[in-house]
Amino acid sequence: xxxxxxxxxxxxxxxxxxxxxxxxxxxxxxxxxxxxxxxxxxxxxxxxxxxxxxxxxxxxxxxxxxxxxxxxxxxxxxxxxxxxxxxxxxxxxxxxxxxxxx
Length: 102
Fold this sequence. Notes:
alpha+beta; 32% helix
């Protein structure tokens, strides 16, 4: 069992994401929370005062990749122009939540 836990930790990936376009006022944050929790990801999402949405996703590498693909689509009313991704520090098992605007 210990090897399985170690392998899961080795496969974890964490990324910081900034999504631009028509992504505020279209339920992008709520949608992100649902999508991230469905993929059992850890991290958070928040609006930025510049009109973008920022998020931190951490979890199994394939699940993080699937979430990044989903970010390009977003909820039905969103119009995503860009998804900027950079590697980030893993917050560990913390669940996924929505933070206030920064």
